[in-house]
Every structure is written in C-alpha cells, then in structure tokens.
Amino acid sequence: MKHTTAALLGVGLALVLLGGCGRSTLSGPDDPTVDSSVDSSMDSSIDSSPPDSGVDSSPGCGDGMCMPGEDCANCPVDCGLCMGCGDGACSDGESCSSCPSDCGICETCGDGMCAPGENCGSCPTDCGICMACGDGLCSETESCFSCPGDCGLCMSCGDGTCAGTEDCTSCPMDCGLCETCGDGTCSPSEDCTTCPTDCGLCMACGDRRCEGTETCSSCPGDCGRCMTCENGYCEPELGEDCLTCTPDCGECDSCGDGTCNMTSEDCFTCPTDCGICSGCGDGRCEVTEDCSSCSRDCGVCSFCGNGICEDAGGFETCINCAADCGTCTTITCGEVLTCTLGCIDLGGTPPSFSISCIGSCTARTCPDVAFMIDQFVNCAITEFIGCGSIECIMRECSEEVAACLRTRCPPMP
Fold first, then answer.
1. How many angstroms separate the CA atoms of 45 and 341, rounded?
2. 380-388: average pLDDT
3. Which pLDDT tens digit goes with each residue over 284-310?
4. Which of 50, 80, 53, 55 lies closest to 66 in space, CA to CA?
5. What's the angle, vertex CA 148, arms to CA 192 and CA 208, rounded to 5?
6. Domain tally for the chain?
7. What Rg do the C-alpha atoms of the chain give, in angstroms?
8. Measured distance CA(49)–CA(61) in Å, rounded
9. Do 109 and 70 reside in the same domain of the chain?
10. 189 and 281 share a domain?
C-alpha cells in the first residue's frame, strides 16, 4: 500500500477500509502525529497472509506439532489434511495451500523460493520434502502431492498431461524432471521416487514386484519402462534419463566401472556391472526386460529414424537404415576384409564371430568381391578353432586373401 503526505485526518478511515490488503506503518512508534489507539485497535482485524493462501505463515506452522490456533485448514502440514482433501474437488474451505491435490498449485509455487504461505506440504518443489516423507508410511499430514514416495502418485499422474495439481516433484512422468534432477546431488525437493538418478533407487526397488508407490518412472526394473521409452529419443520433459530410460538415454556414467553400486544400480539398470537378471535368456522379452537390460531376449537398442546411427555390433547400417547411417557406397576387397575381421572375436571364451556383421560387410561390395570374401570366410571358419589370433587366420588363408585383393569392382553405372 502506498501512502502520500495527504491530511492525516483521513488515515484512520483509509486503514479501516483497506485493512484486508495488509497494514503498513506510516511513522515510527514515537511519532506524535499518529493516534496509537487507532493503530493498536487495527491489529486484530488485519490479515498479513498472502491472498487466498489459507495457511498460517507464522514460524510455528511446519514444526511437526499441531498447536493451538493451527488446524487442518491453516496448517495441514502439522495438523493433517482436512476430511474432504483428496476427493478431486476443490471444495469450500480448501485452497491451493491447504489442499493442492484438489485445488492445484499456488501461482508462486515453483519460483525457487519458499515464500510465506508455502511449506513442505503445499510446495515441496520450493520448500523441500517434509521430514517424515520417505519413511514408507502415508501419514495424515501427507498426500500424493506432497509425498508420492509414501502415498503413491496422484490418480491423474501418468495420463500424459501436466495438470494444475501436478509438477516435476509430484509427477515427473507428466511434467518432466525438475531442473536439479541429474546434477548428482539429492536436493531437499527430491527423493528416490521423483529423482532416483540423484537419490538412488527406493529400498523396495529390485524385488521384481511392482507394488505400493513404485512406478515405471521410479522403478522400471519392477514396473517396466514407461510407455514413451524405447522410441529412440531421450525426453527429459517426460521424466526420462539414463536410469529411467536407458534404451533411449544410454547408460549412466557410473555404469561400466566394474562395480555394482547398490544405491543406483541393479541387474536391470546396469547389467554390465551387476550381471543379467534372472530369467534373461529364456527367449521371452518380459515386461521387466528391455533391449538394454536383456538384449538376449529383447534385441539391440537400435531405432531407425531417430537420426543416430546406432552401429554398435554392426546391427544398424547404411543397408538397413539409410535414414540414420547414410547411403551405402561400394567398398573394395581390402575394406571388406578389414570389416569382416572386426566381426571375429578370438579373445572371448569361447571365441565367436557375428554372422550378421559379416553379412553387412559383404553386402556393401560388388558380386565378384563378395564371392572372394565367401572363400576367405569359409577358410577362416575352418581354421577358426586351431588359430589363436587373426594373424594366424590371415596366414592360413593367404591364398584366398590374395585372390580377393586382385579382384576389382567394375565402375558404378
């Protein structure tokens, strides 16, 4: 409220009329021009809380004790939610502060500042998660909005629309990951449900049962990947990252260091370090398996059309996906031989070779060179077991190699 130097006789009337907007001090306590009796009589009728907050902004609210003067309407974080809160309808007596799950989030929530009228129950994004959140029990002071880890996700979460009652803290599946998720620090507004990448997997995650508060976003190993995952695009705005959607976003940085970090890794999120899950290799791609956790059953993570030539292992090439890998050009015998030798692994136990990889190599050359490569491959298979190195194979099959190198592809028409 702005004040001018207008006649002081109108001050008392102006304050009475505008009392609902809050009170500002016109002068110091010793100023003789102001009637102290008017000032003191105004104290009980003036509300300094933010408009429509419905929540006591006094320091006592949020201390975990429902004190005199506090109730479910003005301090639900201490006194519990009112009876009708959570029924999906914003009824009389409910507000964005007292019942955000019904009335939606207050306008100031999400600006990064825990403002007066906001607390861990009404705006965990700004104020952090309440201390009791995460104990596995959905108490009367918690809701699907303030503590999805204990109470489960709200009913509308997962419908693909970030509604008025949802934000990145309560529903990353619809609203995307919070900006701080993925920075390596479990911030006060994050937990294992909303940001397992920073906070680690929830304790029950990994028991191969999707139950309680687990979802495809918080525990894909138990609940399966979310619908949007495995389309070839890493979409943080849909809650995807290296932990929740490895097929699209790739493995997390720590995966592959040879140590199975039990906090954030298991057989589903990082089989490289933790080993494959039981059941992988039975020929059935189950709900809790995907191309990253069990390629034996589900195939490789290659998505033609996403603009990335995922050529690891030689499965996506210019032959089967020109859109990602470009148009093939005819290659010489020497190039085909180099490509083919890359398909042979003599260092494994047992040694192995990839037929599809060899096929991709030979498909890129002319018929004459392809025929000569066949002669070399047949010789290599014969000598495969006896030879312990590529050099040995090249030596034993030297005649086939020489014949291939002398063969030239005719010019393209």
1. 87
2. 84
3. 998 889 999 999 899 888 899 989 888
4. 80
5. 55
6. 4
7. 33
8. 13
9. yes
10. yes
Of 143-147, 163-167, 169-173, the poorest mean pLDDT is in 163-167
Q: Which runs of E-coded beta strand occur in 159-226?
A: none
Both 345 and 246 in one domain: the answer is: no
Q: Does residue 264 sit in the same domain as residue 297?
A: yes
- The DSSP code sequence of 99-125 is -HHHH---TTTTSSS--TT--TTT-HH
Q: What is the pLDDT of residue 5?
A: 36
> Model-level pTM greater than 0.85?
no
Mean pLDDT of 197-207: 83
pLDDT(36) > 50: no
Contacts of 173 (CB under 8 A, 6+ apart): 153, 157, 158, 215, 216, 217, 226, 238, 239
3-state secondary structure of 353: strand
Instruction: State the Cα–Cα distance between residues 4 and 69, nearest whole angstrom.
Output: 36
One domain, residues 64 and 181: no
187 and 295 in a single domain? The answer is: yes
Q: How far from 399 is each of 63, 248, 366, 403, 404, CA to CA, in Å?
A: 85, 45, 20, 6, 9
Please report the pLDDT score of residue 237 as a whole number. Answer: 84
Rounded distance between C-alpha atoms, residue 315 and residue 321, angstroms: 10
Phi, psi of 322 (to 5 degrees): -65, -25
Q: Cα(377)–Cα(371) distance, rounded to whole angstroms?
A: 10
Q: Is the pLDDT of residue 17 over 70?
A: no
8 A C-beta contact, residue 128 and residue 189 = yes
Hey, CA dihedral for 374, 375, 378, 381, is it positive or negative? negative
Cα-Cα-Cα-Cα dihedral sign, residues 210, 212, 216, 220: negative
Question: 75 phi and psi, to 5 degrees?
Answer: -150, 65
Confidence of residue 412 (pLDDT cuts 50, 70, 90): low
pLDDT at 16 over 60: no
The separation between CA 201 and the C-alpha centre of its own chain, rounded to angstroms, equals 12
Give the pair of three-digit tokens for residue 262.
Answer: 């039990």
Residue 410 belongs to some domain of the structure: no
Alpha helices in 43-106 (DSSP H): 76-79, 100-103
Give the domain range for residue 100: 56-152
Look at residue 384 in the predicted model and tell me its pLDDT. 80
**pLDDT for residue 273 is more than 90:** yes
DSSP 344: E
- Does one domain contain both 14 and 108? no
Q: Does residue 390 fall inside a structural domain?
A: yes
In a domain, 70, yes or no: yes
CA atoms of 188 and 126, how far apart (whole Å): 9
